[in-house]
Structure formats: structure tokens, C-alpha cells
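#lab-general

N.A. 3:47 PM
ok so I finally got the sequence cleaned up, no stray characters, all 195 residues accounted for. can someone with queue access submit it? mine expired

B.Y. 3:52 PM
send it over

N.A. 3:53 PM
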Amino acid sequence: MRHTLRSHAGSFALAASLLVGAAASAHAQSTVITFEDLTGTGVLPTNYAGLTWSNDWIFYDASQSPYTPESGVERIFTEDDLSSFSFSGGVTFQGAYFSGYRDSPVQFLLFFEGNPVGSSAVYSAMTDTPTFLASGYDGLVDEVEITTDSRNWVMDDVTFTAPDTATPEPATMSMLAFGLVGMGGAAFRRRRTRS
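B.Y. 4:20 PM
back already:
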């Protein structure tokens, strides 16, 4: 009998941890940096949108084919072969949109705490239709480098997800606790009536 009660208690604890984890992960949402709060042309601030950008990014909004933005009118580019942006903590980096001239290869190199952790495919079949280049890695990163040997592209809609640090609402936790206590009480009563 004790073994049965212990196994039920273990099942209740597992169910509770799964429910709390599901409730917390449901709050995590992707962030998309569209650059639309910028206007005109200029050097991207090094601390733009809560990220740290290398000093060589330029934003602009002039219509120019094949450099089509994915959303709005603003997009960014760089004139360096290696540029980067970093996050204040680890995030899951999904990728960004690129457009430009064909044979303008770009690739993401991904780092976490100074160590390389992944890389994207090399994308070189650009056109004037923005195409999403996925990071190819779903672990945490805190720095993204973009390598290229051409400067004939633009980037837009940088997308990432920060780990959810939100805790479930107190009402949700109370309902979960009452449910688990009720299930535990029912199992205990069942065990006593069988004795």
C-alpha cells in the first residue's frame, strides 16, 4: 500500500512540474526587431533595441531595388566582412531576412559565453524578395556574427526569443495546488478504505 501511495505522489509531483513548465513556456514570445522606429539614414546606435551592435551597421529607408525590406521601409546593412550583434543574456536566435544581389553570401556564426555553438547555412541566392535565413541552432546564444565576402545585401526583421523568467500567476498556482491536494486526499482515502 505504501508503495502505491508513493508512486501516486511521484505522479502528482511530475504532473505539477510539467504543468508549471508548460505555463511558464507559454509566456515566451519572439521579439522581432524591425528597425521601424528609426527614420532616414544613419549609423545604427551601438545599443539599439537592447542589443550591442558592432560600429559598422547603417540603417536607411530609401527605396532601392533589390534591397527590399521585409517589413516597413527601414533595413540595415554593413560594409565590413564581419559584423556582429550581441545580447545581454542568452537567447534563442531564430534568424533574419535578407535581400540583395545574387552571389552575395551571408552566414550566421553563433556564440555563447565566448564559445562557438553553431552556424547557419550559407545563403547566397538572394533576390529582391526578402528571404528568411534561419540560424540553424535552437540553443542559447549571446552573440551573432555575420560573415560575408560581399556588401550587396540588406538585413531586416531580426528575430529571437529570450528565456521566459515570468512565474505563473498566483491564481494558477493556487488552483494547481488545490487540485493536487484533492488528488492526494482521494488517493489517501482510497488507501484507507482498502485497509
